[in-house]
């Protein structure tokens, strides 16, 4: 009962801090909503190389551009963009594209992409579907039946799919930003613990009938609860406002958010234990956060990182959280929790530290 009272008092103390509300709730919410609305309705530009020697490529490009944002480049410039990581991939219409369709054979749109790069599923789906319709239209024409590609379409299915793909890209960006916010919250955790010790709040608490371990445990539970609720609320509110499909699988996202909060809390405990002044806390956590967020893929997509950097990505909790969210594998959140366990074990306070 005494522990619950201590938890409640610490919850009130932390919530009364306006800086906590601003840094852990308002700022993340505003930024994630802004990102969502900036990307709303904006599709990824697909780079296309037209190497076809026939004439059907013009019809192909015209129809495909109705459901995808396409920009034509010559091969040299397109490959430069991929090699310089300006774009993750580019597509190429083969030189025998028209010839194969006229023969009733299916041409293959070539893809030039980064090593282990991800694929824009909507473009490839729509391209494949359009080519099938072009072959069918040509065969019907040879049989004396003239049918346009529009007559072979299926209720604007491509437009719906494009919107979904854009949403996934936006969701990934927002979740990566939210994960970064969570990790940087370690600074707040460590600073609060450090200041409580500096202001003798813990020492005065130890003079009560409660055991030191009970007091420290109650403080950590209060911090963990508030950070989990704050960041989970940010996710739910921004997803609801944007109408994101991520809410359909909200347990996966909330579990990963809570797991990352545990990692951030554990890192804060560890740094607060080893640091002797407040300025060092900020410096150490910022260095750790910037490096791991970059390597782990929460600053930029993992696929755009140099291969040498990607070798270390799996040694960061951010990588596994993003992997769990993008693949839908909830069990990967367990790896994130393991990172937290290691840091928590290393940073668990000894009571004499505050005496």
UniProtKB/TrEMBL annotation:
Ranges for domain ABC-2 type transporter transmembrane: 18-345
Native organism: Clostridium vincentii
Domain of life where this protein originates: Bacteria
Protein's name in the database: ABC-2 family transporter protein
Signal sequence segment: none
Annotated keywords: Membrane, Transmembrane, Transmembrane helix
InterPro entries assigned to the protein according to its UniProt record, in alphabetical order: ABC-2_transporter, ABC2_TM
Membrane-traversing stretches: 20-38, 174-194, 215-238, 250-271, 283-302, 330-349
